[in-house]
C-alpha cells in the first residue's frame, strides 16, 4: 500500500476500519467528470497567471484527457485506499505524466475542490430532474386532454362532494409539478456561484483569478467569502427540500392511484406492465409502484432531515461530516428520478373507467349544492336558507333511498312549494360539472382551455 498523499507527517497508514469509514470513493466517483473539469479550469487559470508553466499545463491537460478516456472506457484504476475521487484522479495523473501532476494542487484544497465538483454535479442533476418532471406533466396533460368532460366525484374528507371532471383533477397535479419544477430551477440559479479558489478555508496568497475559473465552469461569479464557500451546503438542502416537496406530490398522486385501482373504487385499471400479482391470490393486480412511490417520498424527506441535522451544529469551516452530503443528495435524486419515471409510465398506460366514475359521482347527493344554487338563482332565496331547504330535501331522498335527480317533484314541493320541474335541469352530474365555469373551475370548457395552454407551455403535440 503506497504512502497516502497527505502522508508526510505519518509513520503508519490508516487502519482498515479507518479506511472503511473514511473512504467516499464508491459515492463520489460519480463526480469524476466534474472533478476533471474543475482541475482543467484551475490549471488553465494557474498557467494564465504565470503560477504554472505553459508546458506543465499542457502536460496536465493531456493527462486529464487520458484520465477521462480511461474513465469512459472503464479502465480507470479506481483505488479505495486513496479515499475519494479527487485523490484518485490526481494519483492517476501522477502515474501518467509524472512531476507536473504535483503542481496542479497549487492554490487549491480538496475543500474547495469537492464543493466545486458537487455544485457542478447538482446543477446538472437539477436540470435533468426538471426535464423528467416536465415529461410527467406532459403525460398528465395528454390524459387530461382525453378526459376534459369525463365526470368523476370530487371529494372532501374522502366523501363525495361535487362532480368534477377527470381532466381538471389531472391538471391539478400539473400545477403542483410546475411549482416543483420552478423550485428546482430556482435552486440551480442560487447555487451557481463558484467556490473554487477558497482553498482550505482562508483563500490563498497565490495571485489566482477566481473570475476566470468561475466563468470557465459556467458559474455566474465566484463566491465572495472563502469560509462560506467551503462550508455552505444550503444549496444541497434546498435541492433536497425541493425534491422532498415534489416527492410529496408524487406520493399524493400515487395514493390516488392506489385508491382508484382498488376494486372498491374501480375508477381505473393499471396496465399489466405496471401491476404486480400475488403469489397466493390469483385475482390480484397490485399497484406496487404507486405504493413504493409513497414510501420513497418519506425516504427523500428523511435525506433532507439527515443532511440538515449534519449541518445545523457544524462550526465553520469544513469538517468531514460534510462528506456524507453527497450520499444523501445523490440517492435523493436517484430515488426521485426513478419515482417520476414510474409515475410517468403508470399515467401513460392507466385506463380510466368513465362509467364507474360517473356512477360514483351521482351517488352521495353530489348535486345538492346545485339545487341550493338553483333556489338562490330562481327563487331569490338567501343562500343560507337555500342550504337549509336543500338539506331537508336531501333527507327525504335519503329516507326514500333515491338520488336527488330521482326524487319526485311533489316530495320537493312538500319542503318548498315554489320549486318547479325546471330544477331537474341542474341535478345531473354533467349539468353540475358544466355549470362551474368560473376561472379555474371544473367545467369541460374551462378545462379544455387549460389543456390548450399547458400544451403550448410544455410543447405537447
Ligand atoms: N472526500 C471529501 C469530502 O467529500 C473531500 C474533502 C476532504 N477534505 C478534508 N479536509 N479532509 O468532503
UniProtKB/TrEMBL annotation:
Return any one Pfam family short name. Answer: ASL_C2
Enzyme Commission identifier(s): 4.3.2.1
Major localization class? cytoplasm
- One GO cellular component from the entry? cytosol
List, alphabetically, the InterPro entries matched: Arg_succ_lyase_C (IPR029419), Argininosuccinate_lyase (IPR009049), Fumarase/histidase_N (IPR024083), Fumarate_lyase_CS (IPR020557), Fumarate_lyase_fam (IPR000362), Fumarate_lyase_N (IPR022761), L-Aspartase-like (IPR008948)
Q: Per the similarity annotation, which family is this?
A: Belongs to the lyase 1 family. Argininosuccinate lyase subfamily.
**Name the UniProt record assigns to this protein:** Argininosuccinate lyase
Q: Which organism is it from?
A: Hyphomonas hirschiana VP5
Amino acid at each position: 500500500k503506497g504512502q497516502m498523499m497527505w502522508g508526510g507527517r505519518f509513520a503508519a497508514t490508516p487502519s482498515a476500519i479507518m479506511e472503511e469509514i473514511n473512504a467516499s470513493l464508491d459515492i463520489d466517483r460519480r463526480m469524476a467528470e466534474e472533478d476533471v473539469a474543475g482541475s482543467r479550469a484551475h490549471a488553465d487559470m494557474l498557467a494564465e497567471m504565470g503560477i504554472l508553466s505553459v508546458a506543465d499545463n499542457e502536460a496536465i491537460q493531456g493527462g486529464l484527457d487520458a484520465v477521462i478516456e480511461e474513465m469512459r472506457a472503464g479502465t480507470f484504476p479506481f483505488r479505495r485506499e486513496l479515499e475519494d475521487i479527487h485523490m484518485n484522479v490526481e494519483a492517476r495523473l501522477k502515474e501518467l505524466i509524472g512531476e507536473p501532476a504535483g503542481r496542479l494542487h497549487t492554490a487549491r484544497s480538496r475543500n474547495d475542490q469537492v464543493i466545486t465538483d458537487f455544485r457542478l454535479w447538482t446543477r446538472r442533476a437539477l436540470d435533468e430532474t426538471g426535464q423528467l418532471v416536465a415529461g410527467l406533466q406532459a403525460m398528465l396533460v395528454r390524459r387530461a386532454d382525453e378526459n376534459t368532460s369525463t365526470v368523476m366525484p370530487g371529494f372532501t374528507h374522502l366523501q363525495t362532494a361535487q362532480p368534477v371532471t377527470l381532466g381538471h383533477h389531472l391538471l391539478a397535479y400539473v400545477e403542483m409539478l410546475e411549482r416543483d419544477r420552478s423550485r428546482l430551477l430556482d435552486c440551480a440559479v442560487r447555487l451557481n456561484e463558484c467556490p473554487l479558489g477558497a482553498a482550505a478555508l482562508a483563500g490563498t496568497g497565490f495571485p489566482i483569478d477566481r473570475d476566470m475559473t468561475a466563468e470557465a465552469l459556467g458559474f455566474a461569479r465566484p463566491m465572495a467569502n472563502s469560509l462560506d464557500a467551503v462550508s455552505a451546503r444550503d444549496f444541497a438542502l434546498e435541492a433536497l427540500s425541493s425534491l422532498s416537496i415534489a416527492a410529496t406530490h408524487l406520493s399524493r398522486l400515487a395514493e390516488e392511484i392506489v385508491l382508484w385501482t382498488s376494486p372498491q373504487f374501480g375508477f381505473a385499471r393499471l396496465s399489466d406492465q405496471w401491476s404486480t400479482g400475488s403469489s397466493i391470490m390469483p385475482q390480484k393486480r397490485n399497484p406496487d409502484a404507486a405504493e413504493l412511490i409513497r414510501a420513497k417520498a418519506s425516504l427523500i424527506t428523511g435525506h433532507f432531515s439527515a443532511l440538515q441535522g449534519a449541518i445545523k451544529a457544524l462550526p465553520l469551516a469544513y469538517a468531514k461530516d460534510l462528506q456524507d452530503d453527497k450520499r444523501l443528495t445523490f440517492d435523493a435524486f436517484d430515488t426521485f428520478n426513478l419515482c417520476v419515471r414510474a409515475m410517468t409510465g403508470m399515467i401513460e398506460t392507466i385506463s380510466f373507467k368513465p362509467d364507474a366514475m360517473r356512477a360514483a359521482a351521482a351517488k352521495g347527493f353530489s348535486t345538492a349544492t346545485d339545487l341550493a344554487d338553483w333556489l338562490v338563482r330562481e327563487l331569490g332565496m338567501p343562500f343560507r336558507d337555500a342550504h337549509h331547504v336543500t338539506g331537508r330535501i336531501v333527507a327525504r331522498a335519503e329516507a326514500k333511498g333515491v338520488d336527488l335527480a330521482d326524487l319526485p317533484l311533489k316530495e320537493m314541493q312538500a319542503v318548498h312549494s315554489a320549486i318547479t320541474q325546471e330544477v331537474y335541469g341542474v341535478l345531473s352530474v354533467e349539468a353540475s360539472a358544466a355549470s362551474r365555469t368560473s376561472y379555474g373551475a371544473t367545467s369541460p370548457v374551462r378545462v379544455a382551455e387549460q389543456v390548450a395552454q399547458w400544451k403550448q407551455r410544455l410543447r405537447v403535440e
